[in-house]
Specification:
Layout (H helix, E strand, L loop, with lengths): L13 H6 L3 H12 L10 H16 L3 H14 L4 H14 L2 H17 L5 H17 L3 H17 L6 H13 L3 H17 L6 H24 L3 H13 L1
Length: 242
C-alpha cells in the first residue's frame, strides 16, 4: 500500500520506497505482526515475546538485517504462523534492494498459503504487498494480477477499493504502456482519495490530500504519454492550485 511515483519509473530503490509508503498502512501492517497470536506448543511465551519486540524495534529503526534475523527465528519456532512470513516479506520490500524483492514475494506467497481461505481482508493485504514486491522486481504483469486479486478480495469482504492499490495498479498499467487504462486507474484512485472518510484531523486530511495529488498528477502524466501535452499541463495546473 503506497502512494505514487512518476508513471515512467523503473524498479524502485530504497529512497523512493520511503517516499511512497502510506503511514496508516504501515501502522496497520505493523500491528499485524506486533500483536500476532503466538502458538505455544514448542516455545515459551517469553522467548516469542522477546523476539517479537526485537523485530519491531529493529524494523522501526530500519535495521532490516536484525529484524529479519529475529523474524526468521520466530518463523522457525512457529512455522504455521503466517504473520512472521508476512513480516519477513515486508522487511525485504522496505530494504529496497533489487535482490530482496523476489525473496519478499516468496515470503508473501508462503503467508498466503497459511491464512484461512475465509480471511479475505488478510488475503487482500498480503496480495497487495506481494504485488509491491513484483513491482520492485519489474514484473509488471505479476504485480497487476496481484493488485486485481487484492481488489477483488477486498470487494468480496465488503471493503471499499483501497486508493493506494488503485494508484499502484495504474503504475503497473503505465509501465506496460497501457496509458488509457492507467489513466482510468489513476482517476479512480484520485476519486477514492477525495471520497475517503475517517477521522477529520489535520494528519488524516494531509494523507488524503497528498494521495489525491499523487494520483491526479499521474492521471495528468498519462495524457502527456498519450500525446495531449496541453491537456496534461492544464490538469497539472489544476492539481497544483488545489
Amino acid at each position: 500500500l503506497h502512494a505514487a511515483l512518476p508513471i515512467w519509473r523503473g524498479p524502485p530503490r530504497r529512497g523512493r520506497w520511503l517516499a511512497i509508503s502510506s503511514p496508516a498502512a504501515l501502522r496497520a501492517f505493523s500491528r499485524t505482526w506486533r500483536a500476532a497470536p503466538p502458538c505455544f506448543a514448542t516455545s515459551s511465551v517469553e522467548e516469542i515475546s522477546s523476539l517479537r519486540a526485537k523485530a519491531v524495534d529493529a524494523f522501526s529503526s530500519r535495521d532490516f538485517p536484525a529484524a529479519r534475523d529475529a523474524l526468521r527465528r520466530l518463523a522457525r519456532l512457529e512455522p504455521d504462523n503466517p504473520s512472521w512470513r508476512e513480516a519477513l516479506g515486508q522487511c525485504s520490500v522496505d530494504a529496497g534492494e533489487e535482490s530482496d524483492f523476489a525473496s519478499a514475494a516468496e515470503e508473501f506467497s508462503l503467508a498466503l498459503k497459511m491464512i484461512d481461505a475465509a480471511d479475505l481482508e488478510s488475503r487482500a493485504r498480503i496480495l497487495s504487498n506481494r504485488a509491491l514486491a513484483w513491482e520492485g522486481a519489474g514484473r509488471w504483469d505479476d504485480a497487476l494480477g496481484d493488485y486485481d486479486a487484492a481488489l477483488a478480495a477486498a470487494n468480496d469482504a465488503g471493503l471499499p477499493p483501497d486508493p493506494y492499490v488503485l494508484n499502484s495498479r495504474g503504475n503497473c498499467l503505465a509501465s506496460l504502456g497501457e496509458y488509457e487504462s492507467a489513466r482510468d486507474a489513476f482517476l479512480s484512485s484520485a476519486r477514492a482519495f477525495g471520497d475517503a472518510g475517517g477521522v477529520n484531523t489535520a494528519r488524516n486530511n494531509k494523507i488524503r490530500g497528498d494521495g489525491y495529488t499523487f494520483a491526479a498528477s499521474n492521471a495528468a502524466l498519462t495524457l502527456a504519454q498519450l500525446g495531449d501535452v496541453d491537456a496534461a499541463r492544464a490538469e497539472m495546473e489544476k492539481v497544483s492550485r488545489r
